Amino acid sequence: MFPKILIANRGEIACRVIKTARKMGIATVAVYSDADRDALHVRMADEAVHIGPAPASQSYLVFDRIVEACRATGAVAVHPGYGFLSENAAFAERLRQEGIYFIGPPVPAIEAMGDKITSKKIAAEAGVSTVPGHMGIIGTAAEAVKIAKKIGFPVMIKASAGGGGKGMRIARSEVEVKEGFERARSEAASSFGDDRIFIEKFIEEPRHIEIQVLADSLGNCIHLGERECSIQRRNQKVIEEAPSPFLDAETRKKMGEQAVALARAVSYVSAGTVEFIVDKDRNFYFLEMNTRLQVEHPVTELVTGIDLVEEMIRIADGQMLSVRQEDVKLNGWAVEARIYAEDPYRNFLPSTGRLKRYRPPVEEASATLVVRNDTGVYEGAEISPWYDPMIAKLVTWAPTRLEAIDGLAVALDQFDLDGVGNNIPFIATVARQARFRGGDLSTNYIAEEFPDGFTGAKLDDDDLLALAALACRAAFQLETRGFEGAGAMMGQHVIAERSVIIGNERRDFSIPKSDEAFVLMTDDGQGLLIEDGWQPGETVAASEIDGRTLHVRMDRVTSGFRMRYRGADLIARVMLPHVADLMVHMPVKSPPDMSKFLICPMPGQIIRLDVAEGDVVEEGQPLAIVEAMKMENVLKAERQAKVAKVNVVAGDVLAVDAVIMEFEAV
């Protein structure tokens, strides 16, 4: 077995590999850029080597720096994680030439499957179902339009060397083909150093289902069942699960057999994933093969009991697979949610900054529930604009799908994260939607369920009553704890009255005489028994209200609390009833009119300006492109207007809310 390995990656996946290596008794080496000097993976590894400036092109993507780090530390093998150099055939070849083991597939397999055009041809020859499309390289936008019209709209424009949602656009018209072609090619060039583009038919109502394969160098190749990855945003997976709620045993068997056939066709070795698009009739079509560990691998690990990282290391060491196909059993259900540093209330724009609070739910493992949190950060860590915005992967397992989803929902309520915008409220909302819980999924799910964007979860009356009661109880605790006679007051059965206002809704409570329990009475005579509950200084309340357990994130604000629960973010103001009576007379401050400005929605760099001062723009017209966290974001005009002033030039790095340009009426 390898005595020491280097992880050529960062963040969550580097920490994940270190954990398994440590379990196997293997020493680890981390590498880090200037931006990651204090990162968690650096702290966890046995050794760490600095490899350059923050931009990945000057650090994590530089072959020489990785090889030098191996030489300096005596690492004999490299695990690439995912992203960065994980599917770079030239890097794997360089390691081979240097006599360093690559914990991944052989170079020919990476080359064959890393090029989407070549991979589709090989898949077709291996008897794998493929999507109709144009398999040649497309040179111009005009050529792309001609091909798209021939295939028939809608089409998917894709980078040949792409992955992770980069360099991908859906086009439903000639205009969208032209714009999508340019953006996909630009993203592909900056992310992969390869701007080749191809086009294929976009399958309507599609599901994204993938098969995990494992193959050793001794000729053994198996699959570990499927993962459902249909909940996506901008072609980036958000929630994954295993198994799929859609597949039947016959379709699972066929997909698994085709995935293994493709792996054998390219003499695949190591862990890999064959991705399929599946239509509403369970017809499936080969999408691509990822020759690396997938982000969503934990759900497969939890339903099979197989450590994929351990298998990869064993395979690279020349060992046989530890399991046979007949040994693979799918046990229970696992669901994974990707926690991203992005603001769901602002169209999921990337968010950067310091994690002022990072307290994930407690990990646990029992016969009825597993909670796992794979992360690469800690409280006080910095989320920079240089890399992918993933903060953590929250994964739950349970005997049934609904139990796993319920476990995830509770864990999301317990996840205490502040300092950067994050998508926890959005995921918590999806986890409780009837459509999601019923397994009615497609890659269009988010667009269909949130056509106007995410504005927060809507709680029912029972939830709002429970939150109001909890706020009242917490406020009363704060009021009484500062008095020496507080206990005596309660002992004398003092009755108090309070009003709680959430939004436009007011609820009145009284605290009746009670020797043992804390009870609130509503104004219509309903009694609410509150047990445990929030304690001053805590930020997550685990409370029981009439036997119902709630996990609510609570922060003190003026006259009350900010309460976050089930995807809702609310302010509960607690006051005396006569004060609440006067609230209707308080003026409401109107927000300033910002419609005459184009505001930078996230920290990022201006890649291109499409208009100049004096231009008249129309609704939907592109104005500028901002790049942040490896994604290009096109900013468009919301209405007709004249550009009065442009405050930036291409290349400028802007903070969030910086004014890019100003408008005036036409």
Q: What is the multimeric organization of the chains shown?
A: single chain
CATH class of the largest domain: Alpha Beta
Q: What percent of residues adopt helix (DSSP H or I)?
A: 25-40%
Largest sheet: 9 strands, antiparallel
Uncertain stretches of 5 or more adjacent residues: 483-494
Q: What is the CATH homology-level superfamily of the largest domain?
A: ATP-grasp fold, B domain
Based on CA atoms alone, the radius of gyration comes out at 27 Å
Counting helices, strands and paired strands, the structural category is alpha+beta
What is the arithmetic mean of pLDDT? 91
**Tally of discrete structural domains:** 6
Q: What is the CATH T-level topology of the largest domain?
A: D-amino Acid Aminotransferase, Chain A, domain 1
Strand order of the largest sheet: 14-13-10-11-12-15-23-21-20
Beta-strand residue fraction:
25-35%
Q: What is the CATH architecture annotation of the largest domain? A: 2-Layer Sandwich
Distance between the termini: 72 Å
- Tell me the overall shape: globular
Please report the total strand number as a whole number.
40
In DSSP terms, counting alpha (H) and pi (I) runs of 4 or more, how many helices? 18
Tell me what you see in this structure:
The longest helix is centred in the C-terminal third of the chain and has 21 residues, at 461-481. This protein folds into six domains: 4-103, Rossmann fold, CATH 3.40.50; 105-131 and 208-331, 2-Layer Sandwich (D-amino Acid Aminotransferase, Chain A, domain 1); 132-201, ATP-grasp fold, A domain (Dna Ligase, domain 1, 2-Layer Sandwich); 332-457, D-amino Acid Aminotransferase, Chain A, domain 1; 461-585, Glycoprotein, Type 4 Pilin (2-Layer Sandwich); 597-664, RNA polymerase II/Efflux pump adaptor protein, barrel-sandwich hybrid domain (OB fold (Dihydrolipoamide Acetyltransferase, E2P), Beta Barrel), CATH 2.40.50.100. Helix content is 28%, strand content 33%. It is globular. It is α+β, with helices and mostly antiparallel strands. The chain starts with a strand and ends with a strand. The protein is built from 18 helices and 40 strands. Strands 14-13-10-11-12-15-23-21-20 form a nine-stranded antiparallel sheet, with helices on both faces.
